[in-house]
Amino acid sequence: MLKDITLGQYFPGNSPIHRLDARCKLMRVVVYIVALFLCKSYFSYGLALLFLITAIALSRIRLKALFKGMKTLLIIILFTALINMFYTPGTVLAKFWIFTITEEGLRNALFLVLRIVMLVSGTFLLTYTTSPIDLTDGLESLLSPLKKLHFPVHELAMMMSIALRFIPTLIEETDKIISAQKARGADFESGNLFRRAKALIPILIPLFISAFRRAEELATAMECRCYHGGKGRTKMKQLHYHMIDAIAAVITLTVFAGIIVLRSHGL
Amino acid sequence: MTPMIEVKNLTHTYSTGTPFEHTAVKDISFSVQKGEFLGIIGHTGSGKSTLMQHLNGLLKPEQGDILLNGESIWKDKLSTRAARFRVGLVFQYPEYQLFEETVFKDIAFGPRNMGLKEEEIQKRVLRAAAFVGLPEDSLQKSPFELSGGQKRRVAIAGVIAMEPEVIIFDEPTAGLDPAGCRAILENIEQYRRATGATVLMVSHSMDDVALLADRLLVLNQGSIEMLGAPSEVFRHAERLQQIGLAVPQVTALFLRLKELGLPVDPATYTLADALKQLQTLKGGV
Ligand SMILES: Nc1ncnc2c1ncn2[C@@H]1O[C@H](COP(=O)(O)OP(=O)(O)OP(=O)(O)O)[C@@H](O)[C@H]1O
Ligand SMILES: [Mg+2]
Hints:
The complex is a heterodimer of chains A (267) and B (285). Chain A is mainly alpha-helical. Chain A is 69% helix and 3% strand. Chain A has helices at residues 16-19, 22-38, 42-59, 63-70, 74-86, 103-129, 132-143, 153-183, 193-199, 201-224, 243-264, and strands at residues 92-96, 99-102. Chain B has a domain at 248-285. Chain B has 11 helices and 10 strands. Chain B has helices at 48-55, 77-86, 103-113, 118-131, 148-160, 178-195, 206-212, 230-233, 237-242, 249-259, 271-284; strands spanning 5-14, 22-32, 37-42, 63-68, 71-72, 87-90, 166-170, 198-202, 215-220, 223-228. Adenosine-5'-triphosphate is lined by residues 14-15, 22, 24, 42, 44-50, 92 of chain B.
């Protein structure tokens, strides 16, 4: 079912990771991603992996949910890994037909898979443990220096939070419309490409109509509450840093420093 | 006699394997006879819509089976597809599924998917439109020009035009004004009388189902709480209130009268029956 798409989904909870300030989490993910690209050896990958595993364990997100979201990326990951494996020059391990496997190639492939999987798990962990509202609030607050350059930070954040808010609603709506048209005998699974594309009309038209209706209702509701953009707007829910954020920041920076030190020693 | 629909130990879980895992229907078994009118009531989220979507094969049972006229609708692909046409399902707020340029084409969508001949489609659309009281000149209009109540009629006609043996209405009167509600309920009753179809109706309004249904199925958190004639079900007014449901207004009044010590039947639910009892009461004084 469409509902089972977990990308960008939020799993409510009360773990230490859930309680971290959204800004802190966003920065942490950025530092973590940079660190991943600095990793060059088993040691540094090991350190980053340890960091990730600790975070996942603390978040109490089930591994199954994490991997389910990654399923769609599997093909891309495997493909890049294979290319790397066959096309890196170095000490030859095995050779058949036009393919040669080198030691460096294997290593590269392994690191590449590790890097992508860790990158994706890290960002998934962010969206799984942070509600969309907190996430956009955090983003707005982090980007607010750009306001000085007349960059519409607030408007962008508002658009993003509205989009995030309506993704599940639209998915649910699509599910409902598909069921209803199926109940009238619509057939989406057979026929050639043209017929299948045509079969989408009974889904797309009601979906667009309801999306426009929702947009209009939302606009009216926002206007009724005197929404007029970002200027002079205050927040009811203020973001606050806590002790736990400081601890997380120290741990993250230590790991980051560790990876840089390892790198400078050629590891 | 083989029942029209037989539900056997049906269980359904949504989002299995995620933190949102939720068993919406738990081990439900019941059967519906041909020509019967079954009312389904239950609080929000009790699994009514989930249960209904199993009956025409939209949802596949995780456990259990659905028999239509004694044969499983999951026996093979053909019987699943046939079930779509034999069991018509009018969804909650069906007016949001309209998509065609004209009302006529929209009503014809179902019959066309059945692969009927053009003449037959024409006949069925006109008949269905007449059933729900759509004037003939509105058939060439765009469905989006109509009012909410009229749109709902178009959507109902779209299912009726498939002439299913069983027709399920999921809260057909939700969000309509009293006159609109009455009109739709009358249409449903007329359709049943004219075709002898088996009807299942999900409703939040006790008064609606009490009037029309032969039997009532009460759902509570995915399980059957009660199943029986309205007079039996409404005898358990207290239990109904405990699970977040009300009794019809007439029943509520007679419960109060009984409390006050008058010799009346507290499970009265029709106006005619109520009037009779009140008259005997008056005659007796
Ligand atoms: N597509 C879905 N994915 C996940 N959970 C669902 C889905 N549809 C329904 N549910 C859940 O299953 C339960 C039963 O839902 P259902 O729609 O069957 O209830 P209902 O009795 O029809 O309620 P209502 O009176 O509000 O229409 C609810 O708790 C709901 O949250
Ligand atoms: Mg429902």
